[in-house]
Amino acid sequence: MAGALVALSIAPNAIAPHTVTAHADPEPSTKELKSQATKLADQLEQLTEQYNGLKVKLQQSQRAAKVATDNAKRQEKALQGIREKVGSLAATSYMQGGSDPTVSFVASQDPQAVLDQAATLNFFATRDSAKVQGLMQAMQAAQRARKSAEERAKQVSQLRGQLDSQRKKVGQLYEKVRGKLVKKDPSQLGKLPVVGTGKAAQALRFAMTKIGRPYVWGAAGPTTFDCSGLTMWAYKQVGINLPHYTGSQWNAGTHISEGQLQPGDLVFFHSDLHHMGMYVGDGKMLHAPHTGDVVKIAPMAGRPFAGGVRVA
């Protein structure tokens, strides 16, 4: 958490507009845009990893809160029997107009308030009530642990939300700069970092190393590929086995819309799904087109998009 807080204190400066805003005159060069995009991609990777770390911490805090809550419930249940036994004593004390410290201690919904009173503690010390004290203190300890765990979970959740906001801002800036770069020089898209830490992004990184390799029908690497062979080979490098068939890969994950696509997602075309590729970003995909061509990045626009599939 401390590391993430430091990151948050640094991140706003790291993504200040002056670092990515192009000069009105002259326009930034291809080299300058590529440098900006690379730096933003690196920041995005760092924020994403910190976000993932906080996700783990949140799960741990939530589990700790559940364990503490269950423990408090068990202690409360153990005390319930004692409360029932002193019920008659409480009634008698009330009828007599007095308040027995034992009854107050055991029956109180806020036992800490009673335990904090020195007179009550002294009373228990002289009345051999160690068992009752032990149960009450155990329950209090469990309740304090529960509150502490819940507070940690709340803090981590808030921090994760702030970090996610920073991550999205950097991602938007990266997309903006990348768009300018690709508009100026489309060939640069394949040279930019693949943003993302999941297996889909990792698979895309492997696939990008095959740009320029020839299309060969039925081939699945490592030097030649057809469309489904390229995606099958790329995902195999990250431990995911896909069948060498577009129709089967269509059913290998969760169907998503074009607007939900992220780098590494599978994209399919035509009603019979006879062609596919991997989404790169900025409306473009990496694919092995057809005989006589090579693995390359191309626009998705103008193709009959059938849908996307998120494998991982």
UniProtKB/TrEMBL annotation:
Assigned protein family: Belongs to the peptidase C40 family.
Domain of life, per lineage: Bacteria
Domain NlpC/P60: 197-312
GO molecular function ontology, one term from the record: cysteine-type peptidase activity
UniProt GO BP: proteolysis
Coiled coil region boundaries: 30-85, 132-159
Higher taxonomy: Bacteria, Bacillati, Actinomycetota, Actinomycetes, Streptosporangiales
The entry's keywords: Coiled coil, Hydrolase, Protease, Thiol protease
Name recorded for this polypeptide: NlpC/P60 family protein
Species whose genome carries this gene: Actinomadura rubrisoli
